[in-house]
Amino acid sequence: MSTLLRFLAALSAAAVLGACSEPNRATESEETTRSVEFLFDGALQNAAGAPWSRELEPFLAEPSFPLLGEPVGKAAWKPLEGSAGHERASLRLRLAGGPYVHTVAEVITLAGLRPAAPEQSLPAPGELLLRDQEIVRAVGAEAPVSIDYPAARDGLAGGLATLDGDRLVPQRLRLPGADRRVALAPTPVHLTYHVDVKAGARLEFAVAALPLAVRVRSGGLSLAAFAERGPNVRIRLEEEGGASSVLWERSLASADSYAFHPAAVDLSAWAGDTVRLHLEAEQPGEGSVSGEHVLVAWAEPALTNEVPDARPNVLVLLLDTLRADRLGCYGAGRDLTPALDAVARRGVRYADAMSAASWTLPSHASLFTSTYPSQHGLWKDQVLPAELPTLAEVLRAAGYRTAAFAEGGYLGSAHGFPRGHELYDSKNRDCSVTFEHAAAWIAERETPYYAFVHTYQVHSPYEPPSEFRERFVRPYDGPLPEVVDAPDYDWGHGGAPPSAADQRYVSDLYDAEVAYLDQEVGRFLARLEASGALDNTLVLITSDHGEEFFEHGSALHGMSLYQEQLHVPLILAWPGRFEGGAVLEHAVHTVDVAPTIAAAAGVEPPVTWVGAPLALEAGATARPLFVPMKTLWSNTRRVGEPAASLREGDLKYVAYPSDLRPFDEHPSAALFDLGRDPAERNDLLDEAAAAEWRRKLDALYARYPEVESGGVAEHDEATRAELEKLGYAGGEDD
Questions:
Q1: What is the distance of C-alpha 182 from the center of its chain?
Q2: Angle of helix 431-443 versus helix 500-531 axis, rounded to 10
Q3: Most CB atoms closer than 10 Å: which of 149, 151, 275, 570?
Q4: What is the pLDDT of residues 17-51, one digit of tens each?
Q5: What's the CA gap between 485 and 463, in Å, rounded?
Q6: What DSSP state is assigned to residue 606?
């Protein structure tokens, strides 16, 4: 079964479960909200000109076809770093996040093709060398060069929308600042849906045009930037009697390309009628008959209607790298988090929450899929397996509007995290900007929404605003700079710890970042509360992992499974359910987050989820807390080696590859009693206990094995730069 078919099967299963389940919270009063129908999930009545324009079909039906030459002038090149006298530039044509269109490993000259030169060779003036998806040419070769090369069908067709029976199968399209589910097709596009219009109906959608026109030439295709006058896009409504009305129309100029343009149209005047909605895109003027087709994307058209609904909205705040003990409600000695503490006072706080991993990628994968890292298999360049439904997919299938706002790095699009999100907005930025984007989206929602909001604000590099630096960073005259990028130092990737004064300084910078983040969280929540967007909303605040400040001989995270890296805050607030400032002391796991949200939404969880809804009664956790992961030993050769933690009550067993933490008192396996030894200083492990805990660990690995791989993630240059800045790249094996 293909990845796409597995994905659709998982999504269909989630939809059936969502449709058959009943909310677990009784409706006390008939509150009017909005339900949602996603047009892409319904049957197409007509798909003239889509998903592929008729002129393109003969080429896209073949395994490969010639992509004919377009003159490539100097202005068309995207410069990359290169050696003196030559320039490296990119002509990569990636469509809808799919494979590259062109092939590589050929030297192209003005005279034609010849075999690839050795890796160390460079082109002569007028020559182009294709190598590793890049083109190298000599500086000073000003004359345009015409390039012909074969294109694989999957490179172009794989990024376009397809038809499966009478259904449109959309793709995901990543544009700057957003990743959305789209129908991407070359003009002309004409999609028709039969719609029963209900009270208060409204159609919400977005459109985009890629800055590429596909031209049909004799014997092949070519790609080029489209002309100044771009495609016309419109929404047209046709009544049963044949009367037709244009509800919305826009002409996309070339300056508008490569961005989503959101819009909405009111359908309430047709309440009670059955109509046809036409989504149309045409190339204007000569383009409609010249064989030029612009690639147009219709993004997730959603039809909303007024219905009685008491399901809660869901807002998840994931504060990356936030240690639990930096919050006042978790016993911090400094007043860093008044806003987060206020949420805990009105909600419920889980005092002993353990993350599924001690670094970002596997931890988020576990949070989204309620599976252990040993199951989803993400530890470096992997993609979420299609067999594991995500929380966003489950909620979307149940009629929730879904969006994520994150800050790039491992929360980019490459690892499958956009699945289930109508909008996936992930970009490196300050937390205040992320919260602004999230608040704007939430303000427009009238249906129950699920918003996942992530920030790297307290993650290294530590660069707090001056106001917070002055308040929380104590006097320091050591060698470290004003902005500390921890991976730049030997102690940032396993070297000897710095002096006590340096350690305090780095910790103070982190505290200042925490205080700034808390201020922005408070402003974000206050804005939502003032607008009513938090009415009947489950707010869940947590982190993916903590941060070590040399408590066990190292810094940062992802290098151990001690509590400073695994103990995360977990606060829930929802009037009538999670309220009153209760504190639950029993240990819980972040794989329980998705099932807790599903239960609040009245949605049956998928069978693949291993977590359970968080209990509101005090008591011991019934199952062991299992943390299996492969570590990302930043900037070393020891990447991807297994580490694990297993906890039963207060007893916690940890196992690391030997000798990876030379300044740790416990460089490999150890056993701690957290009730008596919360700082994990006294190793209780003897030979018999080691064998017993190893058997338990092996049994859990056997019980929760890895599912089929979801593929390999491809990071673009910008993402690689973000990962390096965050300390996740740059090692010899990276």
A1: 16
A2: 20
A3: 570
A4: 223 333 333 333 445 566 888 999 888 988 887 78
A5: 8
A6: P
CA–CA separation, 86 and 80 (whole Å): 10
Coil/strand/helix, residue 398? coil
Q: Which residue's entry shows tokens 């003239």?
A: 48
CATH fourth-level superfamily of 313-350+362-586+599-725 = Alkaline Phosphatase, subunit A (3.40.720.10)
User: Which of these, 554, 553, 548, 584, lies nearest to 569 by C-alpha position?
Assistant: 584
| Residue showing tokens 């900007």 | 433
Confidence of residue 234 (pLDDT cuts 50, 70, 90): very high
CA distance 175 to 10: 26
Element (H, E) at 248: strand 244-251
Contact 648, 622 (CB under 8 A): no
Residue with tokens 């190298």, as numbered in its chain: 136
pLDDT band at 658 (very low <50, low <70, confident <90, very high): confident
The Cα–Cα gap between 596 and 608 comes to 15
Q: Give CA–CA dist 138/283, Å, rounded.
A: 37
d(CA 543, CA 531): 26
Q: Are strands 149-152 and 64-67 parallel, antiparallel or unpaired?
A: antiparallel
Q: Is the peptide bond before 312 cis (omega within 30 degrees of 0)?
A: no
pLDDT of residue 117: 41
In the chain, the largest separation of any two C-alpha atoms, in whole Å, equals 83
Q: Where are the domain boundaries for CATH 2.60.120.260 in the chain?
A: 32-61+160-308
Place of tokens 């300084």: 505
Tell me how far apart the alpha carbons of residues 453 and 437 are, in angstroms, rounded to a whole number. 10
**What is the mean pLDDT of the segment spanning 595-614?**
95
- DSSP secondary-structure letter at 574? B
Residue type, 57: E
Superfamily of domain 32-61+160-308: Galactose-binding domain-like (2.60.120.260)
Tell how strand 189-196 and strand 313-319 pair up.
unpaired
Alpha-carbon distance values, 115 to 69, 122, 150, 191, 412 (Å): 19, 14, 15, 46, 37
List CB contacts of 436: < 8 A, sequence separation 6 or more.
Answer: none
Which residue(s) pair with 627 in the sheet? Answer: 645
Task: Tell me which long-range contacts 80-86 makes (C-beta under 8 A, separation of at least 24).
Answer: 80/134, 80/717, 82/136, 83/122, 85/122, 85/138, 85/139, 86/122, 86/123, 86/136, 86/137, 86/138, 86/139
Supply angle C-alpha 301, 275, 294, rounded to 5: 45
Based on C-alpha coordinates, what's the Rg of the chain?
A: 27
Count CB atoms within 10 A of the CB of residue 614.
23
What pLDDT is recorded for position 220? Answer: 81
Q: Which amino acid is at 609?
A: W
What pLDDT digit, counting tens, does each position of 311-343 carry?
899 999 999 999 999 999 999 999 999 999 999
The secondary element (H helix, E strand) that includes residue 518 is helix 500-531
**How many angstroms separate the Cα of 352 from the Cα of each of 9, 208, 320, 549?**
36, 46, 17, 20
CA distance 728 to 410: 9
d(CA 413, CA 153) in angstroms, rounded, equals: 23
Q: Is the peptide bond before 51 cis (omega within 30 degrees of 0)?
A: yes
- List the one residue out of 573, 622, 568, 570 whose CA is nearest residue 600: 573
Q: Strand ranges (DSSP E) for 252-380?
A: 261-266, 274-282, 292-308, 313-319, 348-354
CB 363 within 8 A of CB 370: no
Where along the chain do the CATH 3.40.720.10 domains lie?
313-350+362-586+599-725
Pairing of strands 348-354, 570-573: antiparallel
Q: Which amino acid is at 535?
A: D
How high is the mean pLDDT of the chain?
82
Cα separation, 516 vs 462, whole angstroms: 12
| Per-residue pLDDT tens over the stretch 97-148 | 433 333 332 344 333 333 334 444 455 555 555 544 455 566 655 555 566 6
Contact 373, 605 (CB under 8 A): no
